[in-house]
Amino acid sequence: SLAAKVAGHDLKGLVAYYNCEVGTCVPLMLLLDHKGYRLVASTILPVSRNTLVYGSDNAGISVLDKDSEIKEKLSRAASLLNLAPHYAGPVHRQHTPSTPLQPFKPLQPPLQSPLQPLQSLSSSSATLVEGSSLPQPPVGGTLLYSAIDLEGHRGTDGRHYILDFSRTFPPESPKRELFMSHLYRLLRPEFVKTYPLPLSSDGFSSFTKHQPDCMQHNNNLHNATRKLIEDAIPTFAKQLARSIEYGVESPFESDLSSPGDRLCSLLHRSGINIRHLGHVTTCLMRLPNREYPYARDAVVLCFIEMTARTLKCYLGRLMRYISQFNEQQYDSLFRQHSVQLLNLLFSTTGHRAQTMKFWENEIPPLIMEKFDIDVTPSSASTNHPHNPQKDKSSPSSTPSTPSSSSSSNGDHRPTVKTYLTKLPHRDKFGDGRRILLQRIIQVTGIKFVPRAMELIASRSNVFDMWCDSLSEFDLEDVGTRVKHMNIIDHALGYVHRIRSHSVSKTDPACRNMRDTALLKLQAALASNPNNKFTLRNLSQVLVELEMLDHEYKLQSLPMVRPSSFSQKLPSSAFTSVAPTSSTSFKLSPRLVQAQQYILLALKADPTDLMTLYQYAIFLKDHGKYRTAIAVCLQSLSIDNRHTKTLHVLLDLACIANLPEIKVLVEHAIEDVYKSKYLLSREGVQLP
C-alpha cells in the first residue's frame, strides 16, 4: 500500500509540472488498480542515462547540473509551486593534516554575541574535523530547485524532459513510529502553494542532512505541518459544517458526484490530505451543537469515507494474499472472500453475531491505524457533542477497548456502526448506510450481477434488506480502476462540449453530449481541483445545461412562444422580478454552482484574462451589471487592449446607460483595431 501511495505521488507531481507550462516535456502516465495491485504505465521517452543533465538517477551518489536552460525552467516551476531552492547531494569534506588543537579565536568579522558560535554549530550540520579547531563547511552540495531524484534530460530529439516526480512536494513532519514516512506522507500542492514560505522537497532526507540550510528547511516544514493541523484543519471543519447547513458547496448538494467524492474534492481544494480525515472528524466532534447543528452530519460523512477507504485497503490486502494461488483458484477464492466481507458488513440474519463482532473488534483498529483517530466506544461517547456525559463507571485514565460496548451492564455507547445507522437530517440527506454501501462499491470497483443490484436498489434500509446473504454468484467482478492525467478527461469533456454545439438543441444527443462533458470534466477536476481550465469549462457546461433545460420547459408550453430576444437570455432572466437591479436575479442551484467554479478559477489565477472575461459575461447575462463592470476594469488593468473585454464593457455601458464610459470604450476599441490593421500590413503575426 505504501508503494501505491508513492505511485500516486508520482502522478500528482507529473500533473503539477505539466500545469506549470515552463517548456519542459513530461511523459503520459496512468495508474491501474487491479485486485490489490497498482500498475504504473508510462510512455517511452527518447532519453537514456547518457542524456541526464540535471538531478540524480543513483540515489544521490552523483548529482548533475550541466544544463542552465533546464535549470532555469525548473526554477520558474519551483516559483509557481512554491518549492524552495536548496542544497543537496553527496558531501565530501576537506581533509587537513592532524594538528594539535589551538586556542579558540573569533572568526572575522568578529562575532557580535558570545552565543553565536553555539548557534552556528547547532544550525548547521558541519562537524569538527579531527585535529582542527573550526568546523569545515561541506563541499559538493548542488543548488537544486526540485527534489534531488527528479531527473532532467536533454532528449535525443533536443527537447527537455523531466521524470520521476514521486517526491515533487515537501513532506510533513515525520513520525517516529512510521518508517521512512517522509517518502509518502507529503503535503498537498494546494497547501504548499498558499504557504507563506517556499518549502523544500528534500526535507528530512539524507540528501540534505549535511548541507548548511538543512535545519532551516526542516524547521519550515515543522511549522507548515503545525499550521496544517492546528489552523487549516479546524477551519475546514467549521466550513464543512456551515456548508452542509446552508447548502453552499455541500457534499450532499452536488448532482455531479457522490458525497464521498465531493468531500474528497473539498478536502483537496483546502490543501488537506485524506489521511487527515481523523483530525477533521475530531474537530467536528468538538464543535458546539447549538452553533453548528449540522456538525454531526459532517461527522457521519467523514466516518463513511474513513470506513469505505479502510475496507478498500482491507480488501486489497486480502486480494494480494490469495493471489499466491493459481489462476483457477484465485477467481473462486476472490469471490468467496469478497462476498464474505460484504455479508459481515451488512448481514442481519445468519451472520448477525459475526457482523457485530466485525464492526466492534475489527474495523475500529483499522480506522485508528489508517486515520489516527480513536474510534473506541468510550471515545465516541465522550467526544461527541450529542453525548457529552462521561461514563463514570470506568476511570478516565484507562481507555476502554472496542469490545467494551457490549458489556453486560447495559452500556450502549456509540460505535462506528451506530454513527452510520442514521443521519440526523435523514429526511434531507438520506440513509448513511446506503451511502456507505455505494461508496464501498465505488472505491473498490466491486460489480454485482444485475439481479443483486436490483435487490439492493429496491430495499430502503441497507442493513435490514440484507436478509438473504449474498453468494459468490451475486458478484460479477472487481473492475480495474484507472487514474490518469487530468488532460485526458479534460480533453474528452471539452470535445463533447464543442460537439454539442453542432447538434440541434432539440436533439437528445445534445443533452447526452453535455452530460458526458460534465462527467468527464468532473473526473478531471478530481485529479487536479485547482485547474483553472477545467473549472472554467465546468462553469460553461453548467450554464449551457441550464439554458438547455429552460428551452425544454418553454417547448413543453404550447401557448408560449418566446421572442428572439428572450431566447438569448439565460433561465434566471425568466424567474426574475425585473432586470433593473443587480440583485433581482435569483440564480438556480446549477447556476450557483457554475458561479462557484468560475470564482475558484479566478482564485487559482486572478490574472487570467479569459477567466475574467467569462466571469464578466456570466454577470452581465444574469443582471449583475455593476459587478460585471468592476470585473471588466480589473481585466483591463492587466491588459487594456483585450478586445473581448472591451466589447463586454461596451455592452454594459449601453445597458447601464453610461455614455461617458461608452465613448471611451469605443475609442479604445477603434485604436486596438487600427493598431492591429497597421501591424498586419507590415507582416507582423498577431495572436
In short:
With 687 residues, the protein is α+β, with helices and mostly antiparallel strands.
Q: Tally of extended strands?
A: 11
Strand order of the largest sheet: 4-3-7-8
- Structural class category: alpha+beta
How big is the Rg? 30 Å
Shape: globular
Mean pLDDT: 76
Query: Number of DSSP helices?
Result: 26
Detail the poorly predicted runs. 92-137, 377-414, 557-584
State the end-to-end distance.
48 Å
Main sheet, how many strands, which sense, barrel? Answer: 4 strands, antiparallel
Structure explained in plain terms:
By secondary structure, the protein is α+β, with helices and mostly antiparallel strands. Helices cover about 50% and strands about 5% of the residues. It has 26 helices and 11 strands. It has helices at about 1-20, 70-80, 115-125, 190-195, 215-245, 260-270, 275-285, 295-320, 325-345, 350-370, 375-385, 415-420, 425-430, 430-445, 450-460, 460-465, 485-500, 510-525, 530-555, 565, 570-575, 590-605, 610-620, 625-640, 645-655, 660-680, and strands spanning about 30-35, 35-40, 50-55, 65, 85-90, 140-145, 150-155, 160-165, 445-450, 475-480, 480-485. Strands 4-3-7-8 form a 4-stranded antiparallel sheet. Strand 1 and strand 2 (about 35-40) form a beta hairpin. Helix 18 (about 510-525) runs antiparallel to helix 19 (about 530-555), helix 19 runs antiparallel to helix 22 (about 590-605) and helix 24 (about 625-640) runs antiparallel to helix 25. It is globular and about 80 Å long.
